[in-house]
Amino acid sequence: MQKILITGAGGQLGSDCLRTFSNAGEVVGLDLPEVDLSDRDACRAALDRIKPGIVVNCAAFTAVDVCETDPSCWKGNRDLPKNLAEWCGANGAFLAHVSTDYVFPGDKPLFQALEESERPNPISEYGRSKLAGEQAVTEATDRFAILRTAWLYGANGNNFLKTMLRLTLQHPGKTFKVVNDQYGSPTWSMTLAKQIRAVVDAEATGIFHASSEGYCTWYDLASSFLDQLNIEHHFVPCTSDEFPTPTKRPQNSILENGHAKALGLNIFKDWKTELDEFVRMHGETVIEEIRAL
Ligand SMILES: NC(=O)C1=CN([C@@H]2O[C@H](COP(=O)(O)OP(=O)(O)OC[C@H]3O[C@@H](n4cnc5c(N)ncnc54)[C@H](OP(=O)(O)O)[C@@H]3O)[C@@H](O)[C@H]2O)C=CC1
Ligand SMILES: Cc1cn([C@H]2C[C@H](O)[C@@H](COP(=O)(O)OP(=O)(O)O[C@H]3O[C@@H](C)C(=O)[C@@H](O)[C@H]3O)O2)c(=O)[nH]c1=O
């Protein structure tokens, strides 16, 4: 029976990958604090012990604003995938690695979607460190799939939707500004996990864009989520300039899943259909989780 290692197994995507791969072989999850996979020796020792035939790397440093000032971001986003890819290359294992829309600058004219063939040119430390991770993977092994996803939300862990729900529930009636000039494709981590499984099962290699079909703004996303939950909200659309953050974020990070479509592997539906399904399945639990904070 093949062994499948899921890294970042306690995170948002990793926990959904554990479930999605559960009937694909013997699944092993790894996360901090058990092993720091950005440490080369610790990573090697862990993989030598587990001996996976497939590695699905969901581990990363995902606090985008913190990346601007914390060099640990480069450990999690460049060194960690490099260590995994070197081990996979030397041991013949297949590596599925997850990357981000933030490797692009966001200056492509609206609303043209970004193809896999386009040149990344990140505008944030997070994006630069993730691009360095992609490059390390491609240099260390041939048997890899890099899946670039965007605007993830899911049942486990933290995400933008939970933040906006928390702000609303903790401050009823209060207005919140939400950026309405950045466009992307919100993606449910469970659907991404299924897309990763489809790519791995097909042993398809190369770079894949992997986000929901269609696009919206952060304001559209927050409003749709709260509407679907039937919770009154007072979100006010604003420009990026009116909501300053330490990190500049891409204006257009709409991804086109061209590679997966060409191989007949794309499973994503429209972002709104995906969000509605997420709310049907997990809405009540998410509200309870946020109310308990
Ligand atoms: N979240 C999003 O909106 C998006 C995410 N992505 C990418 O998708 C992937 C999954 O993201 P998501 O599930 O949201 O991320 P999470 O932050 O929820 O999970 C990442 C996991 O990796 C673990 N981890 C971090 N550093 C190490 C390390 N050195 N050794 C071992 N484990 C480590 C974290 O542990 P701990 O929590 O203890 O630090 C955490 O459990 C990442 O590659 C991310 O860059 C791409 C686009 C959008
Ligand atoms: C909390 C909040 C955020 N915003 C804005 C800030 C920003 O432009 C946008 C999203 O903010 P967040 O900080 O939640 O999301 P951010 O960390 O930028 O999300 C990114 O995470 C990484 C890991 C990725 O790879 C990306 O695909 C993307 O999902 O919403 C508001 O406008 N109002 C608010 O009240």
From TrEMBL:
EC number(s) given by UniProt: 1.1.1.133
Q: Which UniProt keywords apply?
A: NADP, Oxidoreductase
- Pathway where it operates: Carbohydrate biosynthesis; dTDP-L-rhamnose biosynthesis
Q: What class of enzyme is it?
A: oxidoreductase
* Reaction it catalyzes: dTDP-beta-L-rhamnose + NADP(+) = dTDP-4-dehydro-beta-L-rhamnose + NADPH + H(+)
One annotated GO molecular function: dTDP-4-dehydrorhamnose reductase activity
Does the keyword NADP feature in the UniProt annotation?
Answer: yes
Q: Name one Pfam family in it.
A: RmlD_sub_bind
What highest taxon heads this organism's lineage? Bacteria
Summary of the function given for this chain in its UniProt record: Catalyzes the reduction of dTDP-6-deoxy-L-lyxo-4-hexulose to yield dTDP-L-rhamnose.
Q: State the similarity comment.
A: Belongs to the dTDP-4-dehydrorhamnose reductase family.
Name recorded for this polypeptide: dTDP-4-dehydrorhamnose reductase
Q: Which organism is it from?
A: Pontiella agarivorans
